[in-house]
Amino acid sequence: MPAIVSFAISSARLEPAVLARALDEPGAGAVVTFEGRVRNHNAGQAVARLEYQAYPALANKTGRAILEQEAQRHGLLNAHAVHRSGELGIGEVAVWVGVAAAHRDAAFNASRAILERLKHELPIWKKECYADGRVEWVGPDNRSPETGLAHSGVPEWPGQLHAIYLSEGHDFRGRHGQQRMDHGIIQVGQVECVAGMGLRGDRYFGYQPDYKGQVTFFDAAVVESVRSHFKVPALPAAAFRRNLLVSGVRLGEWIGKGFRFQGVEFEGSEECRPCYWMDSAVGAGVEEFLKPNCGGGLRARILSDGVLRAGVPG
User: Does 291 have pLDDT greater than 50?
Assistant: First the structure.
């Protein structure tokens, strides 16, 4: 008989005693629960509080899959877990895991495996707020030595994602000799990446099989250079109609290479070469200005599912 399994993301304070009631099972010879709490220090630094940010739809799907897989692997009767979101103070429960099994080895081993996989695979980001005012983001890394889910080996990007832009339709593509369209572009705080498809909600989502331009990265330093050179300090970064505004990486160095950013794997496919539409979208002379050093951006394929969040380091 399949195990009873549940996983949830909660913005409310967790009550372990209440959660543990779900583990009542006449056939259980062992019940193991774990509470991951917010401590007041990390790596020798005083911590004031934590904040967790999650992409709920993907996190719930991933979390439930982890529990189902480990419940089957260890022969569990019940498996439940809840992960907090939002701000947490010192001492609050950030994650709760509870399992019931016929025997203690299965219960102990399963609870540890579930916890390790939740830590490394859930699309949840932790913001550690230190007592001295510093802030540090920590994200999933898709690696779990406990369960054998290995890191892919591709290098991590050291950059930061400043903004995410999506448009439901093309303004310039296929419009040679005609006026641009007016689909507009919106800025969002997070976006779902779908392997082989693109960014959900964007005009290039599912555009063509194995399309080389499923997503386009754009250097925030280029935006500043254009603003300065053309004396347009108020020029919005959205005007370039690129998806992801980043800093801290040399985009041209990643053409033909794989990399990992916020837990999502990409492959740089080619330079996003500027065309004459740049002069129309931004200003006269911008096309030529963007041509050197991959100034038009980096086009890339998406190799793994995940979620990107603006304002989060890679």
Answer: yes
- Token pair of 173 as six digits: 């593509």
pLDDT in tens, 33-49: 999 999 998 878 899 99
Burial of 91 (0-12, 13-18, 19+ CB in 10 A): exposed
134-160, pLDDT tens digit by residue?
887 766 654 433 333 444 557 888 889
How many whole angstroms separate alpha carbon 142 and alpha carbon 117? 8
Q: Which distant-in-sequence residues (6+ apart) come within 8 Å of 196 by Cβ? A: 209, 210, 214, 301, 302, 303
Nearest to 72 by CA among 110, 104, 44, 37: 110
What span, in angstroms and rounded, lies between the C-alpha atoms of 188 and 179?
27
Nearest partner of 8 among 93, 85, 83, judged by Cα = 83
E strands, the chain, in order: 4-10, 30-37, 41-42, 45-54, 78-84, 86-89, 93-101, 124-130, 135-138, 160-166, 186-188, 190-194, 198-199, 215-219, 244-247, 258-261, 264-271, 298-302, 306-309
CA distances from 140 to 272, 291, 297, 304 (A): 29, 35, 26, 13
What's the rounded Cα separation, in Å, for the pair 66 and 73? 10
Distances (CA, A) of 290 to 125, 222, 284: 34, 8, 12
- What pTM did the predictor assign? 0.54
CB atoms within 10 A of CB 1: 5
What whole-number distance in Å separates Cα of residue 79 and Cα of residue 29?
14
Helix, strand or coil, per DSSP, at residue 159:
coil
Report the alpha-carbon angle 299-302-308, nearest 5.
Answer: 95
Domains of the chain (ranges, CATH numbers): 4-138 (3.90.1170.40), 160-309 (2.40.33.20)
Q: What is the pLDDT of residues 187-214, one digit of tens each?
A: 999 999 999 999 999 988 988 888 899 9
What tokens appear for 212 in the block?
Answer: 């080389």
CA-to-CA distance for 19 and 228, rounded, in angstroms?
56
